[in-house]
Amino acid sequence: MWHFQNHDSPPLPPLLPFFFLTALPAQPDSSTYTNCPSYKCGDVNISYPFWMMDRDDPAQVCGYHGFGINCVDNRGRSYPEITLGHHSYYVHNIDNGYRSILLSDTNVSSFGPGPIDCPRVRHGINLQTLPLNFSMLNVNLSFHYNCNGFPSFATEIPCLQLEKTQGKSYVHVMHSSIEETDWDAYSCADQVVTAVIGEHIHMFPDLSRQLGEILDKGFQLQWRMDDDDCENCEDSGGRISLDI
User: Fold this and answer.
1) CA Rg value for the chain
2) At the top level of its lineage, which domain of life is listed (predicted)?
3) How many Cα atoms within 13 Å fall on the side-chain side of residue 9?
4) Where does the chain show beta strands of DSSP type E?
5) C-alpha torsion angle, residues 156, 152, 186, 183 (rounded to 10)
6) How far apart are CA 69 and CA 99, in angstroms?
7) Along the 244 residues of the chain, how does pLDDT read in single tens digits?
């Protein structure tokens, strides 16, 4: 199994795992955890192992550490938001059967400050020590900003060059870490790696003009139960005090 550490602005960003895990067994229906309340925020059902952070509810004693979700109002519409590595992500969907959650960075999401017609990814995805893995449905996008040249496999992002005196910015789908060494000759000011759903690359093949649509559709994470705290929580029917 591949192991990576995620950092916001590394000198050379690590690869997010391409095929990080196999299909997980279906989780029992959330109704199994009768001690745990469930909520709806916008169109998304929030239930164990996730929990609502902005509820003053004495019955809210369930969920994994770090899986707290805020229900945020934006332009008259409510939507769920989770924090990973000090950055906010919009929650598109939670699938308890496959233990998966679909997210997009609020900075490049149509629900965030945008605009998504010219998105600039500013940080990688930092999972820290949370029991989360990148889904095998994801691929990696590598962004290189303000460069004085580019390798042949990269695509220019014209809208990110605000002045003629600035270097140009580029993006490409990463297939291996070897590709990243090809950028050493081009003196880029910054580089960031993020994840997106692979099939969306095929749906929107023009990276130079359709990045907004691809990033807005997000990436998938899957959660796992692999430590004593989570096991105790599962064994208790989901009832455990949150230490936050």
Assistant:
1) 19
2) Eukaryota
3) 6
4) 39-41, 44-46, 51-52, 68-74, 77-84, 87-95, 100-105, 132-134, 138-147, 155-156, 168-174, 190-197, 219-223
5) 100
6) 16
7) 333 334 444 444 444 554 333 333 334 344 455 567 888 999 999 998 999 886 655 555 578 889 999 999 877 888 999 999 999 999 999 999 999 999 999 989 887 655 567 889 999 999 999 999 999 999 999 999 999 999 999 999 998 876 666 789 999 999 887 788 889 889 999 999 999 999 999 999 898 889 999 999 999 999 987 555 555 555 655 554 444 3
What the block records as the tokens of 19 is: 């095929």
Name beta bridge partners: 90.
81, 104
Measured CA to CA, the distance from residue 212 to residue 196 in angstroms comes to 11
Query: Could you give the dihedral angle defined by the CA atoms of residues 155, 159, 160 and 163, in that order, rounded to the nearest 10 degrees?
Result: 120
